[in-house]
């Protein structure tokens, strides 16, 4: 059931098809290079792109911009304590800032970090410490048709194999990313979180939860995990997060804010160490790279994120988009995850050769056809990994309406209908860091 009405609006428009063609070419067939004003429905990311509530805007006006001892930090700290159950909070400018603070404190050269699936910035931060990021997804994660309820889970079995190979003393960090963004936004069960925690204890590692989408994850748990069907989203969130020694959080997701993030922990020594690194890279520990007003808005957002009406509305919209795409015959990853629908580009374009980025071709066609912007999360974004060619359509929180969803579905259906007319893409120029290639590389069509 719809839980909101609009109170502020932003004008959008659809450029002509000719203009969209020109924009694509000028962007080097990389939609990160488009002007946002040229995008009609922007599903590039759910990160920092959502709509704030009136309560958040009210809190923002009262933001305390003091360098030290800001009351907005106190509000953020209280929200993290109440909603997530963690006493110590180190703010950061966004999730990757928090990753730098936490992983820079916990990891050294030659270490191995285990994660159900590293998100791209997480992978890059682990590598930046000279450590090796190793993914431990469950087998079902990469099967777009499996109807397992928790395809985002951390595979303890796989993790044990890695530890047997490299030695427990070289694995100081075990991470569970909830929901598992790089595995189609699939949820992680509480039972699996407990098992990952026990495994981390066994090898004497710090157990971290990447909590970006903790509320969406908790909502799936109340739907799918028998023990929790009568529990509230707020209670599940606290229980699940409670297994971690530390959280790394991007407030741009389930903080319902446009900026910000933090590390939270129960470990006083880890807190003190993180604070020192935060001062170096982020800011004084009562602002950490955020404006006071952004901390104030996030403090309210964190509390709203676990409200039943909010999270039901959120999950339902993503599910609705997935169901409508399926009804239109567009192959998608199922079940749909928390924040996005992932399209199966290989199934849509069987004639585009694997080396010619079928996912990126799909991203370009969605823009060409309907001014819709998604993001490729296949062989273009993750070079040298064996991953399905997925395109993510991420829904900003509380932002788009049913008409927008219908436009996206009509656009994808039209792309599918004209599927035989497309050609592949090849890279024309790319940056030095392969983990970050998809943000700035430029491409060109392969002549047919
Ligand atoms: N961890 C996960 C699981 C994420 O999805 C993200 C960001 C981050 C960490 C980093 O947070 O952007 O605040 O620095 N994901 C965005 C996305 C960018 O589009 O999925 P950040």
Automatic annotation (TrEMBL):
Which PANTHER family does the entry mention?
A: BETA-ELIMINATING LYASE-LIKE PROTEIN-RELATED, TRYPTOPHANASE
Cofactor(s) the protein needs: pyridoxal 5'-phosphate
What is the protein's name according to its record?
A: Tryptophanase
Organism lineage = Archaea, Methanobacteriati, Methanobacteriota, Stenosarchaea group, Halobacteria
Judging by the UniProt lineage, the source's domain of life is Archaea
Q: Residues in domain Aromatic amino acid beta-eliminating lyase/threonine aldolase?
A: 42-409
UniProt keyword list = Lyase, Pyridoxal phosphate
Provide any one GO MF term from the record: lyase activity
Record's Pfam families? Beta_elim_lyase
Family matches, as NCBIfam families: PRK13238.1 (NF009709)
- From which source organism is this entry? Natribaculum luteum
Lyase: is it a keyword of this entry? yes
Question: Which SUPFAM superfamilies does the record associate with it?
Answer: PLP-dependent transferases (SSF53383)
Family, as annotated: Belongs to the beta-eliminating lyase family.
């Amino acid at each position: 059931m719809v839980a909101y009405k609009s109170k502020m609006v932003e004008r959008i428009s659809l450029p002509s098809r000719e203009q969209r063609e020109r924009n694509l070419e000028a962007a080097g067939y990389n939609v990160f290079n488009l002007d946002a004003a040229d995008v009609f429905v922007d599903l590039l990311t759910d990160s920092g792109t959502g709509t704030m509530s009136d309560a958040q805007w009210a809190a923002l006006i009262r933001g305390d911009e003091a360098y030290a001892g800001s009351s907005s930090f106190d509000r953020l700290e209280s929200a993290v304590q109440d909603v997530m159950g963690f006493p110590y909070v180190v703010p950061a400018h966004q999730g990757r800032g928090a990753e730098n603070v936490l992983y820079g404190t916990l990891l050294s050269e030659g270490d191995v970090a285990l994660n159900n699936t590293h998100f791209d910035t997480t992978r890059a931060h682990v590598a930046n410490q000279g450590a090796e990021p190793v993914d431990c997804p469950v087998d079902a994660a990469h099967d777009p048709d499996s109807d397992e309820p928790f395809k985002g889970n951390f595979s303890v079995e796989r993790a044990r194999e890695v530890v047997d190979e490299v030695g427990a003393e070289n694995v100081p960090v075990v991470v569970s990313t909830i929901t598992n963004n790089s595995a189609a936004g699939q949820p992680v069960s509480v039972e699996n979180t407990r098992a990952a925690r026990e495994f981390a204890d066994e090898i004497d590692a710090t157990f971290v939860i990447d909590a970006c989408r903790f509320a969406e994850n908790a909502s799936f748990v109340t739907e799918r995990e028998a023990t929790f069907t009568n529990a509230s989203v707020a209670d599940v969130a606290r229980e699940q997060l409670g297994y971690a020694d530390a959280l790394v959080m991007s407030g741009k997701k389930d903080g319902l804010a446009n900026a910000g993030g933090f590390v939270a922990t129960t470990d006083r020594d880890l807190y003190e160490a993180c604070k020192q690194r935060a001062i170096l890279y982020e800011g004084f520990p009562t602002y950490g790279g955020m404006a006071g007003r952004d901390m104030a808005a996030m403090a309210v957002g964190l509390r709203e994120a676990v409200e039943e009406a909010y999270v039901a509305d959120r999950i339902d919209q993503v599910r609705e988009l997935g169901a409508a795409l399926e009804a239109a015959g567009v192959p998608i990853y199922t079940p749909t995850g928390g924040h996005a629908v992932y399209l199966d580009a290989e199934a849509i374009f069987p004639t585009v050769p694997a080396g010619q980025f079928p996912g990126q071709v799909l991203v370009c066609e969605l823009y060409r056809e309907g001014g819709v912007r998604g993001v490729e999360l296949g062989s273009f974004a993750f070079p040298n990994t064996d991953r399905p060619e997925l395109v993510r359509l991420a829904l900003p929180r509380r932002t788009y309406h049913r008409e927008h969803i219908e436009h996206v579905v009509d656009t994808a259906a039209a792309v599918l209908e004209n599927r035989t007319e497309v050609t592949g893409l090849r890279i024309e120029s790319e940056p030095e860091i392969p983990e970050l290639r998809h943000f700035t590389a430029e491409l060109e069509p392969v002549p047919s």
